[in-house]
Specification:
The protein contains 20 helices and 31 strands. The chain is α/β, with parallel strands linked by helices. It has 3 domains: 3-79 and 259-513, Rossmann fold (3-Layer(aba) Sandwich); 103-251, Rossmann fold; 524-643, GMP Synthetase, Chain A, domain 3 (2-Layer Sandwich). The strands form 9 sheets. The chain has a 7-stranded mixed β-sheet, sandwiched between helices. The two termini are 26 Å apart. Bound molecules: adenosine-5'-monophosphate-propyl ester. The site of adenosine-5'-monophosphate-propyl ester has 22 residues, from helix 11, strand 21, strand 25 and strand 26.
């Protein structure tokens, strides 16, 4: 990417037909909107909040900025579920499809806004009947089924704070999150499906709950008829509780700042961070970005391929699209099941207009070959999106030509779990794209590229990506850890939000996000903490020490390589390598399994005993070390490491 990362890179103007019909039609309109917002961000957002959201009580103050803590739309009462459902029921959207679901075995369900509303109201009454109320915390550990959205919205309806845990996480990871959150309710399903196999979710929940006595209730949605055990008193079937529940449940008027959800994400330590999002601001920006970035239309079929367990699923499968009154497609299954054209088949079948996926997925489609998309009719598509990691220009061009057929703008959207909504992305009718660049910030977002003192670096120079002003969808804190919030995000560079990403801004003001600068590795668009993987490994009886680093990977963006030192007397063997990989899968989740484990005798350390990850990174990237090794305690360790090649998958 680096060679094309600049003002001279090839540009793609918005297609004229797209621009003519878009909300924001040209660069001048974007510039004016951006300038107006930047002149007074608080008032800009307040005006949108008044216009775009349904308030149960109007707010009286736009923003309170008490560095580094922000509150938006103070004095207001609002409900996210009311904004996503009730307000669509009085007009022509009432019988419109809210969620179209397809299962891996081609099962289909369509829930209209009225259907979804009734289910959410009923399930909210179920939760109330079980004694849950505003402020309580619920874990949602579900497959990609509409009931996951029902559970989220039902919690939101009565003010229960939800935390969705990606169904690929292990029992151990689930337990850590239940504990940290002090959750008293778990909502799950018997099993999920992936590549023709059933994945037992309830069994993981049982293992986790054996050590979580605070959880009073576990509600189980029957998805697969998997034989599972139900613990009397604690466990109940979703369908039994729903039977006879009332369909009337007025939305609870909640404070604008009431936490809507907590989502755990990897940080630079072994402990995941509970990112807290507040109701009104989050809702406003997920909704605005549906308009600005996806230019969502009343008759669109919109499809975001993320899992509901990650922030992309929260913002762009559930809250954003439903707040916008859109039709959102949900698919439970693998992209290559039963054949590599499944995604294209779904686009053809449902006449999908807006398609939002990840660079890793795009690269795997390229690898499978053009014949798969070519045998399907993709003419319904009008806009394509990318998220989760930098998209390499070659993948961008393929996406544009083969999927978009040179007709669809591509929005490369940069954002994070913490930002809640898209921050940097072209407005597709207004801003020309450059493959590999997320282009320009959205209105009300004021980023910069700076050095550690906070001084902007020159155009074309690499620096730290920061945001200067708080924005409504910004996370409010880390759950029960305000100090870590301050230290991680607001102290590295004085007075600004530190994203943890490196970036360059070219002479046209375009942003090129280069990747993480901390000990976070982005594997297939999933954030993994090196420390989390290392702590999982040292919990294994054979392991003394471990150091995890990322290595560039054609498909996944980055691959995870772990240098592992075993305890004295433990023989190195390929079997041990496999056992350790499986162990990480069991401790964190299958997606975190290292691509490579290298068993070594020692790790390179500074004189003060710090592992020199920089050297290890160089070693796995270039296979040799050229950087500064003057603080290295024992240079011979490095020479030995360079000789050790792990067993690659
Ligand atoms: O490094 C950036 C990368 O993903 C990180 C955020 O990960 P997560 O919180 O899991 O959220 C992913 C989905 C929003 C960022 O710090 N990232 C995300 N989108 C892009 C990106 N890097 C480059 N270009 C993007 N479009």
């Amino acid at each position: 990417m680096a060679e094309s990362a600049g003002a001279a890179a090839e540009t793609f103007a918005p297609p004229a037909a797209f621009a003519a019909a878009a909300r924001v039609k040209n660069r001048k309109e974007y510039d004016e909107l951006y300038r107006a917002a930047a002149a007074n961000p608080a008032e800009f957002w307040a005006e949108l909040a008044r216009r775009e959201l349904h308030w149960l009580q109007p707010f009286t103050q736009a923003r309170e900025w008490n560095y580094p803590f922000v509150k938006w739309f103070l004095g207001g009462k609002i409900n996210a579920s009311d904004n996503c459902l009730d307000r669509h029921l009085t007009g022509p959207r009432k019988n419109k499809a809210a969620i179209i679901w397809e299962g891996e075995n081609f099962e289909q369900r369509i829930l209209t806004y009225q259907d979804l509303y009734r289910r959410v109201a009923k399930f909210a009454n179920v939760l109330k009947a079980q004694g849950y109320k505003a402020g309580d915390r619920a874990i949602i550990y579900m497959p990609m089924v509409p009931e996951a959205a029902v559970a989220m919205l039902a919690c939101a309806r009565i003010g229960v704070i939800h935390s969705v845990v990606f169904a690929g996480f292990s029992a151990e990871a689930l337990k850590t999150r239940i504990d940290d959150l002090g959750a008293t309710l778990v909502i799950t399903a018997d099993a999920a499906q992936r590549r023709g196999r059933e994945i037992p979710l309830k069994r993981n929940v049982d293992a986790a709950l054996a050590e979580c006595p605070a959880v009073r209730k576990c509600i189980v949605y029957r998805h697969k008829n998997a034989g599972i055990e139900m613990k009397p008193e604690r466990d109940a079937w979703w369908e039994d509780l729903m039977f006879g529940a009332s369909e009337v449940c007025p939305p609870e008027p909640l404070d604008s700042e009431h936490p809507l959800y907590v989502l755990y994400t990897s940080g630079t330590t072994g402990k995941p961070k509970g990112v807290v999002h507040a109701t009104a601001g989050y809702l406003l920006e997920t909704l605005m970005t549906m308009q600005w970035v996806f230019d969502i239309r009343e008759d669109d079929t919109y499809w975001c391929t993320a899992d509901i367990g990650w922030v992309t699923g929260h913002s762009y499968i559930v809250y954003g699209p439903l707040a916008a009154g859109a039709t959102t497609l949900m698919y439970e299954g693998a992209p290559d099941w039963p054949e590599p054209d499944r995604f294209w088949r779904l686009i053809e079948k449902y006449r999908v207009n807006v398609f939002y996926t990840s660079p890793t997925a795009i690269r795997s489609f390229i690898r499978q070959g053009d014949k798969w998309p070519k045998r399907r009719d993709l003419s319904s598509l009008r806009l394509l999106g990318s998220v989760g990691e930098p998209i390499n220009p070659a993948a961008w061009r393929w996406y544009n030509q083969v999927i978009g057929q040179n007709r669809c703008p591509i929005v490369d959207t940069w954002w994070q779990t913490e930002t809640g909504a898209i921050m940097i992305s072209p407005m597709p009718g207004a801003v020309a794209a450059k493959p590999g660049s997320a282009t320009l910030p959205l209105p009300g977002i004021i980023p910069d590229v700076v050095d550690l003192k906070g001084e902007p670096v020159a155009a074309g120079q690499q620096g730290y990506l920061i945001i200067r002003q708080p924005w409504p969808a910004m996370f409010r804190t880390l759950y029960n850890d305000a100090e870590r919030y301050r230290e991680n995000y607001w102290a590295k560079v004085p007075n600004v939000y530190f994203t943890g990403d490196a970036a360059r801004r070219d002479a046209d003001g375009y942003y090129w996000v280069l990747g993480r600068v901390d000990d976070v590795i982005n594997v297939s668009g999933h954030r993994l903490s090196t420390m989390e993987v290392e702590s999982a490994l040292v919990r294994h009886a054979a392991v003394a020490e471990a150091a995890a680093v990322g290595r560039p990977h054609d498909l996944k963006g980055q691959a995870l390589v772990v240098f592992t030192v075993c305890k004295g007397g433990v023989p190195k063997s390929p079997e041990l390598v496999e056992e350790l990989r499986a162990w990480v899968g069991q401790e964190i989740g299958g997606f975190a399994r290292p691509d490579e484990i290298r068993l070594v005798d020692a790790l390179p350390k500074t004189r003060s005993g710090k592992i020199m990850r920089r050297l290890l990174r160089e070693l796995v990237t270039a296979d040799k070390v050229s950087g500064d090794t003057t603080t290295l305690e024992d240079y011979s360790v490095l020479l030995e490491l360079a000789k050790t090649k792990g067993d690659e998958e």
